[in-house]
Give the backbone structure.
Amino acid sequence: MKKPRLMTPGPAPVPEDVLLEMARPIIHHRSAEAKQVITDCAAGLKYTFQTQNDVLILTASGTGALEAALVNTVARGQKVIVLNAGWFAQRWQKIAQAYGIEVVSLDFEWGQAVEPAQLEAALKQYPDTVMVCATLSETSTGTGHPIEEIGKIVARTNAVLAVDGISGIGAMECRTDSWGIDLLCVGSQKALMLPPGLGFIAVSPKAWAKIDAFDAPAYYFNLKAARKKMVDFDTPYTPAHTLLMGLRVALRRIQDEGIEQVWDRHRRMSEACQAGIQALGLELFSARPAEGLTAFRVPEGFKEGDIRGKLSDRFGITTVGGQDKLKGKIVRIGHMGYFDELDVVAGLAALEMVLCDLGYKVVPGIAVTAAQKVLLSAKA
Ligand SMILES: *Cc1c(COP(=O)(O)O)cnc(C)c1O
């Protein structure tokens, strides 16, 4: 017998009470009951995102929210700056290019955090920039970016700040309003503890001013249409309301624990996982690790597929490897959302055994001990 353990940075595990809620009989999406679900979700999302801005619900994966942010705000031929330090940051660039938007790409080495000073210089060089596209947690490299500092820089300009918070929200500190995030884009299947299928976008007054002044070539992802319906806790088209019923339960969990406690739990899990990885003599990939996942380099002489394959075959643990130019070079372990400290300890114990099995020189228990030391010293 093997228990399935989904330790990937999305999709991530879904709690039993959320699953059970979604197994209830289907309701009509224009009923008073459905309106109440959306009303409760709107309040829970605002709390989770730490915003008073409008939060709109889209039936799409997270990428739909990224596309909505761009296509509603920036016209063909206008300019955006993309803070480019990984596979998901590149998605901003690709979506913009698909709409004929001009992209200034500030490239940083994968695994490094973006440098706010370079953005500041670029905004001086390109004062006609309409939007800065950033990533809270770059899932491809396991890196957390300094959004608070970036927000201060962008706030002094006419540009709006759009942030891909898809794997960051619910795992890492993010204060949408006080950090000056104008368009926060989120998806359901990461730290929000739901299956894939919902996208969210929080829109600031500064962003609305641009959106309202622009006749966007958007129909399904038209944010003005979504705002008009959301005033009455409704959506323009049939929402994935079964997922919204689950979302209400997932958000209740976050509200009951408290968002700061949720961030603290992820910080502890992240620090414990990093300590365990380093105790094994493995190298963390990121210079500024994100808190919902940990990425490490595949050690010399070993194969990523062997490590991940054995984790799966022997312990039922699913992890992911690297994307694009990191294929075969790194292993990424997710610990976002429905995870606790013991899940991380178990994951490290499995990794030790798998590495032993593969002939890597390791004293069993060394990673677990290092993680326990972190967890003992941290206040829970
Ligand atoms: C998962 C992820 C995405 C992609 O989201 P989809 O839901 O697959 O569209 C985009 N950005 C980041 C940072 C992610 O982690």
